[in-house]
Specification:
Its EC number is 2.1.1.228. Homodimer. Specifically methylates guanosine-37 in various tRNAs. It is a single chain. By secondary structure, the chain is α/β, with parallel strands linked by helices. The chain has two domains: about 1-165, Alpha/beta knot (3-Layer(aba) Sandwich); about 175-225, Orthogonal Bundle (Trp Operon Repressor, Chain A). About 30% of the residues lie in helices and about 20% in strands. It is built from six helices and nine strands; from the N terminus they run βαβββαβαβαβαββα. The strands form three sheets. A five-stranded parallel beta sheet has the order 2-1-6-5-7. Helix 2 (about 65-75) runs parallel beside helix 4 (about 120-125) and helix 3 packs across helix 5 (about 145-155). Bound molecules: adenine. Adenine binds next to strand 5.
Length: about 230
């Protein structure tokens, strides 16, 4: 998969060199290419923002550098409609299902906004040649899209076949079956007066599965009842 990221902080994405995604980049499974939005400006100060029409606080990102940056990263071919994702607290909420869907694509483009946002015409124009989505990683406000894009790249990247060594570890985790995951234990069997639940050491796989399922349900009911279907 190829991922292009347009940002005024390309160095933010240096951390993708480490851990599993770094390995995937080195082996060629995943190509992440950051682009500096300021490289698409033509003034001495490399200006990317301006005051909002209609007034109000803050600055708005100018359309011209965005237009040129997207011209560079979007394919010419009219049939190749890649997904362009703009992280935004005003977007639809990113989920595991969305990560899985996006992990099946060949090409993703992320556009990181800063300041009060990006001129609306950038989205409208991009929509003529790509599938444009505004996506939020949660109901809180970040200073810009970079951290949100990092989170999305990690969630999507680990679902690309070959990135996570043991694909089975992807199956039994939170959100994959709509529930939160069960608690995990390892050796020693007793630690600081706290014992591992005996069922996990019983060797009875059926009983272990039933216990884990019950733990998932109990935890989801307690912590995230919104994930459960209405009764
Ligand atoms: N940019 C600022 N806040 C954000 C959020 N919650 N999700 C995605 N992008 C953002």
């Amino acid at each position: 998969m190829r991922i292009d990221v347009v940002t005024i902080f390309p160095e933010f994405f240096d951390v993708l060199d480490i851990s599993l995604l770094g390995k995937a980049r080195r082996t060629g499974i995943l190509e992440v290419v950051p682009h500096n939005l300021r490289d698409f400006t033509h003034d001495r100060h490399r200006t990317v923002d301006d005051t909002p029409y209609g007034g109000g606080a803050g600055m708005v990102m100018k359309p011209e550098p965005w237009g040129e940056a997207l011209d560079e990263v979007l394919p010419e071919h009219p049939d190749a409609r890649p997904v362009v994702i703009f992280p935004s607290p005003a977007g639809t909420v990113f989920t595991q299902a969305m990560a899985r869907e996006l992990a099946g694509r060949d090409h993703l483009v992320f556009g990181c906004g800063r300041y009060e946002g990006i001129d609306q015409r950038v989205f409208d124009h991009a929509a003529t040649r790509a599938e444009v989505r505004l996506v939020s990683i949660g109901d809180y406000v970040l200073n810009g899209g970079e951290v949100a894009v990092m989170a999305m790249i990690e969630a999507i990247g680990r679902l690309i076949p070959g990135v996570v060594g043991n694909p089975e570890s992807l199956v039994e985790e939170s959100h994959e079956d709509g529930l939160l995951e069960y608690p995990s234990y390892t050796k020693p069997a007793s630690w600081r007066g706290l014992d591992v639940p005996p069922v996990l050491m019983s060797g009875n796989h059926k009983a272990v599965d039933a216990w884990r399922r019950e733990q998932q349900l109990e935890r989801t009911r307690r912590v995230r009842p919104d994930l459960l279907p209405p009764e």
